[in-house]
Give the backbone structure.
Amino acid sequence: MCELLGMSANVPTDICFSFTGLMQRGGRTGPHRDGWGIAFYEGRGCRTFHDPAPSADSEIAKFIHRYPIKSCNVISHIRQATHGKVCLENTHPFSRELWGRHWVFAHNGKLRGIKQRPLGFYRPVGTTDSEHAFCWMLDRIRTAFPDPPRRPQALMQLVQSLCDDLRTLGTFNLLLGDARHLYAYCTTKLSWITRRAPFGPARLCDAELEVDFAHETTPRDIVTVIATRPLTANESWNIMRPGELVVFRDGLPMR
Amino acid sequence: MCELLGMSANVPTDICFSFTGLMQRGGRTGPHRDGWGIAFYEGRGCRTFHDPAPSADSEIAKFIHRYPIKSCNVISHIRQATHGKVCLENTHPFSRELWGRHWVFAHNGKLRGIKQRPLGFYRPVGTTDSEHAFCWMLDRIRTAFPDPPRRPQALMQLVQSLCDDLRTLGTFNLLLGDARHLYAYCTTKLSWITRRAPFGPARLCDAELEVDFAHETTPRDIVTVIATRPLTANESWNIMRPGELVVFRDGLPMR
């Protein structure tokens, strides 16, 4: 299994603290030695970094650590290969353009038979089941909505039904970004926490690091972190239910 | 005007030497202060780095310099904004997927009226004339070839005719990668040089740096570097003619 990490915030925020915890799982406290990647939205733009090397030893991971990039929407993934060889093109997150927006996709799990589903416009560059599923989802979204729907709820309903469909093929824990929203879908493991004033200290499970967010934030900041397993030991995370979709915008779940 | 840099090689090669010269033009020896970007193909995968900050001061540029990434196909661009504000989504090179391959595009020049050309499938994320031209070109290629043509010459002919068409709108110096070939098209300024055994020393125009490639290479290496203006002072570069397309593969121009 892989590890997912996402962030949604109402102000550009760095993800260094959570990233430190996640990277430890890439070959040190976890078995995920088969590469990692991260995407940062910045306005309409999107910056991605990928490395097929284990994250715990990765030069690119060290760079991102030293040079914090601030973003309102982040999706990251560390991989334990179950399907497809270890190489750059098989490293999540994957991205494609739809409606002049960058879509970003990272998946934890295995989808049996997904490659038998025919694809239309988008085609995978690599050989993973995950990228095939992403291309299939975007094809379906584009077919249903050649232009972006006015109501975000219409898109949320479609994403929910596509996820429910994919779930029948196996395990499908998902983080998906459309440059505005961050969609989190759970079939087995996904948790999230929203941090806002009054901020307090947080202590990582995977590294000896504690941060007092009261010193790092302003009272108006709202930041949600989503992860496969809770990253901190002293906070109360929301554990998602199988089949549950939560859509985040500006740091908060949409209702 | 912007500066372009490309590389085509028969073995994965780092581009540090040429990159050092190019980066100086981003705010030090040149006026190109409006961001820069670079794409490295690695197998079927592609790694891109973008920074809206001037390249001469960029932390990401320093990182790439310290941590040489080896690739057989590289496209880089430093920008002096003529069209579209300075932000991540307006920073070249742009990329899109077609036929399950990453296509990468960087452009130097200005195309008047390009935005009046209707787009089909691909849509720009940012506001530059360049990204609009890229989307238009890929739409035309996809329409002509829903699947990749068997003969690379058929694709080369189409790229030549699309470039000849765009050239009527203004200045169109182009580097385009399809994960196999590197297409270089010139309307005003583009030069290239092929280095192969016996290798000798090369001295940058833009920084005090000399490299003796005889110490850095094996006798079988073939490396072509393409740049807006020659990057070295002591070598003889091929200066491209207006309307000329040269397609490189494995370090050599295709005939």
